[in-house]
């Protein structure tokens, strides 16, 4: 079983400025959050101040209108992301173009070739409904070593997960996940929490205030929430799912990765043999999504990620041959996938939660 971790206190400051923005700084991560109303044409313009030591930033936009990223513009006026261009592409780079949730999230830069960040005011434009309330947050991280990072995870055991045998299997799976990421300069630090969260994880469909409440209490300073439940009701056959690619480090209804330990368990209802290995890959895969890494290829074998070092295979057999051992492959085609490409690792390290 994973031992409880006592996290050392980190000096921080927080205040509300005259414009009503809440500002806080926690070591290498700072946040600026506020609320406003979308314009008469439904647009929300988000200014992002980047300093010389800013390694990456994450924008979180929450609205009932299910916001969609339209553009990201650099300080010199260069449009670095344009939804219109990516809409006709067969490649995926960011999930903020999708508009399928009330919370849209953009982490930038995504790849090494997208950085370093230019100093000055960046601008992200989001589309929504006219006059709707919009909650905004910008996280910025400083990081002088984008080849080494710590990912702090709050493991939220759903209600009823009391079996010591099952928890031991989950602990073995987490250790396997740590072993998968350690060679890539990523240390996973996990802490267990007993909760009353729904073990059927119905919150996956549309988020839930219970997720936000847990995150507000336990997951500060860029920490991630991983809920361990029995099954994902709306996706009953999957081992896990992520609330976004990427997801946010801001406490919201969508602040989660959901892992269905029950689907990985054997007929005896326990995690033994190679079953913890399956769960380890699932943790690495789904948290990989949450930190911004897409599938290298989708299961139509006709859409790919926008990384240069993953294969553009175009059939199931070819993709299983070239990518089947990749942790981010969309299906579990290998007994224990273990590979990440250098550019996939770049994405993980540029996420603001890798500190």
Tags for this entry?
355 residues, alpha+beta, Jelly Rolls, 2 domains, 5-stranded mixed beta sheet, 21% helix
Overview of this protein structure:
- This protein is an alpha+beta fold.
- It folds into two domains: 12-142, Jelly Rolls, CATH 2.60.120.380; 149-350, Collagenase (Catalytic Domain).
- It contains eight helices and 17 strands.
- Strands 1-2-3-11-5-9 form a six-stranded antiparallel β-sheet, with no helix packed on it. A five-stranded mixed β-sheet has the order 13-12-14-16-15, sandwiched between helices.
- Helix 2 links the parallel strand 12 (149-157) and strand 13.
- The longest helix is centred in the middle third of the chain and has 18 residues, at 164-181.
Q: What is this structure, in a nutshell?
A:
This protein has helices at about 85, 165-180, 205, 210-220, 260-265, 275-290, 315-325, 340-350; strands spanning about 10-15, 20-25, 30-35, 45-50, 55-60, 70-75, 80, 90, 105-110, 120-125, 135-140, 150-155, 185-195, 225-230, 240, 255-260, 305.
